[in-house]
Structure formats: C-alpha cells, structure tokens
Design goal:
Blueprint lengths: L6 H17 L2 H8 L6 H9 L18 H13 L6 H15 L3 H9 L4 E4 L1 H5 L5 E5 L2 E10 L5 E5 L5 E5 L5 E5 L9 E10 L1 E4 L2 H36 L1 E2 L2 E2 L4 H30 L4 H27 L10 H13 L4 H11 L5
Parallel strand pairs: 1-4
Antiparallel strand pairs: 2-3, 3-7, 4-5, 5-8, 6-7, 9-10
Helix pairs in contact: 1-4, 4-8, 4-9, 5-6, 5-8, 8-9, 8-10, 8-11, 9-10, 10-11, 10-12
C-alpha cells in the first residue's frame, strides 16, 4: 500500500508552487507587508487557480476537493509566505457555512473570488482585555480583536456560546480599525459593534468546533511550509557563506544545526497529511488530531525559525534576506486559534486526562 500523496495531489502541489514562485516573489511580499500594495492581486491570481473554492462543492461554483488537498495548498502558501485571506475565506468560512446550511450565494461569491469573509472567533476562544460581544434581538454589540482579514466583505463572528453570526463589512454601526501584529503578510483588524445587524448562521456549537478544527490543521500545514522554506534557505546560505576561506556548511556545528531542523521537520509532513486524511475519513479523530498537530507543528516551527536565524547569523535579521517574514508568520500561527499550551489542555480533556 502506498502511504503518500496521489498523482493528482502531487500535480496540485506542483501547480500551486509554480504559480507562487512566479507571482509571489519576496519583493512582492515586501510591498504588501509594507502597505505599498494590497493582497488583492495575489488573491485574484489564486482565484484563477481555483483556490478559494477548494472546499466548496461544484454546485456552488467550487472545486469540491478534500481537506488533505487543502492542507497541501496551505503548505505551499506557507512555504512562499503568501499574503492572502486563505485561512479565513477559503477554509474556515466555507466549512462553517456548509455545515450550517444555506448562504449559497455567499459560497458562490467566495468560489468566484468576489467575496472575502473575515473570521472573528476571539470571543469563543477567550476574549482579551475589553473585547467581547453580545447579541440580542438580531443586533450585535461589543468588540472583537485579532480578526482575520482587515479587507473582508463580510465577517463571521462567534460569541461566547460558540454561536455564529454573519455581518456585512458595510453594516451600519460597524467600525473597522487596523490592528498590527508581527505578521505583516496577512491583514488583521479589530471590529467595534454598535447595534450592528447580525444574520444568525448557526446556534450549534459543533459547527463552530468543526470549522475551528479544520482551521487549526491548515495553520499547521502553513507552518510546515514556512519551516521547510527556512530550512531550505539555511542550507543554501550555508553553502554560499564563507568564513576562514571555507563555506560554513563544512563546519560541523552548522551541519548539526541543519540536520536537527530536517530531523524535526520531516515527521511533521506525514503528521499533517494524516491530519488532513482524518478530517476527510476519520471524523471521530478530528478534534484530537487537530489539537495535537497544531500544537506540535508550532513547537517545531518555533525551533526551526530560531535555528535558521542562527545559521544566517547577522544576515538573518536583515530585510535583504527577508527571513523574518517566515519567522513572524510562524510566530503568529503559534498563537492564532489557540496556543500550544491551550491545545494540549484541550487534547487532554478530549481524552479524559484532565478535569
């Protein structure tokens, strides 16, 4: 039995990587991260590749692929530190909308690249500072912070009961403000609600949990791609950088650093693939595997980003090399949708290993 990607999945991976190599060079990432450009052009290009509709059925104009296929694409996007609303618009929003039923026009708009949906799940995971939302009589009040996608057309909002609501970005009473995080490749914002009309999407917590679990697996895949790219850059740099008339790749200490990164990354690939497979075919494992794979990948990503920067020495901190974009992407992924510590506690509770 072959335990690996199918021929079609390898072709999908190659196709996405070729597009990103051509259309998302580091200079383009710099322009978007600095605010000189928006990510609209890249998202349009990804739309032409069918990326927003990966999980949307063909009946709504999507591609109708599975979660493992989507994880493969997420890994490619992380490898190229691609600025895009992929996690919110192409993953979490479609999963929630499909699980809840209805909203076919919005799903069709997402698949066509005409609609972007941001995600405000902070309240359901644990509100911070003075943030928090309340919904009464179809109106939402309060504030959400660390909302995915500051350029979205709609926002999917979860309250403390894990009920989901949809709000238009142009709704009366909604204030959208910038919120800067370390990861400048993906936009984040805060939303302030003053009697904003909120369309109920689901009052079933299982819909929220399903979307959250799948989002976590895709984040793990994104981190895997980013970590692999940092390793690849480290090896290339070590083969070129000379000290004492020798490339530093010939030094035993540098060899060990690169080997340690490779040894940590390689098992993660099969872990992410299994997680994608479990989402598709082993629903009873979804919750546990999604917690475990994100927690583990974030720890590995943290290790790789640190060691890769050390291999580059002082150059690792410069914008000329640009390694910091991957470093910060991994750092942001570590906290978004749950830190490793939070996820391991969830996993323990799922297995009745914690009170």
């Amino acid at each position: 039995m072959e335990f690996g990607l199918s021929e079609e999945q390898v072709l999908l991976q190659d196709s996405v990587n070729r597009f990103l190599s051509d259309q998302v060079p580091l200079d383009e990432v710099r322009k978007i991260a600095s605010g000189e450009k928006s990510d609209t052009g890249i998202w349009q290009g990804l739309t032409e590749q069918g990326i927003p509709g990966l999980l949307i059925p063909e009946a709504q104009g999507g591609v109708g692929l599975g979660y493992l296929d989507t994880a493969i694409v997420a890994e490619c996007l992380g490898h190229h530190v691609t600025p895009s609303p992929f996690l919110s618009t192409a993953v979490i929003a479609p999963v929630a909308l499909l699980a809840a039923g209805g909203q076919e026009d919005l799903l069709a708009g997402i698949a066509a690249g005409n609609s972007r949906v941001g995600i405000a799940f902070g309240e359901a995971l644990g509100a911070r500072a003075d943030a928090g939302v309340s919904v009464s009589d179809g109106k939402i009040n309060g504030k959400s912070i660390f909302v995915m996608d500051g350029n979205a057309d709609h926002y999917l909002i979860a309250d403390s009961n894990q009920h989901l609501y949809l709000v238009s970005a142009n709704a009366d009473g909604l204030e959208r403000g910038n919120l800067t995080t370390i990861d400048a490749t993906r936009s984040t914002c805060q939303l302030i609600y003053n009697d904003v009309t909120a369309a109920p999407i689901s009052n079933d917590a299982n819909v929220f949990i399903q979307a959250l679990d799948i989002g976590r697996v895709m984040q793990a895949a994104d981190t895997l791609g980013a970590a692999q790219c940092m390793l690849d850059q480290s090896v290339t740099y070590a083969m070129q950088r000379k000290q004492f008339n020798r490339v530093i790749a010939s030094f035993q200490a540098v060899k060990h650093m690169c080997a340690d990164m490779a040894a940590n990354i390689e098992p993660c690939r099969s872990f992410v693939w299994y997680a994608g497979f479990a989402l598709d075919d082993i629903p009873d494992d979804r919750r546990l595997v999604s917690c475990q794979v994100k927690a583990h990948l974030q720890d590995v990503g943290k290790f790789v980003s640190k060691v890769a920067t050390e291999v580059h020495g002082g150059m690792g901190f410069t914008d000329l090399v640009g390694l910091h974009y991957w470093f910060k992407r991994i750092g942001a992924n570590r906290q978004l949708l749950g830190s490793p510590e939070m996820l391991r506690e969830e996993a323990a509770r799922i297995q009745d290993l914690a009170a």
